Amino acid sequence: MSRILEARDVVKHFPVGGGLVRRSASVVKAVDGVNVTVEQGECLGIVGESGSGKTTLGRCLIRLLEPTSGSLEFEGEDILSLRTHDLKRRRRRFQMIFQDPYGSLNPRMSVESALVEPLVVHKIATRTEARARVGELLDMVGLPRAAARRYPHEFSGGQRQRI
Question: How far is it, in rounded angstroms, from Cα 143 to Cα 159?
Answer without folding.
Answer: 8
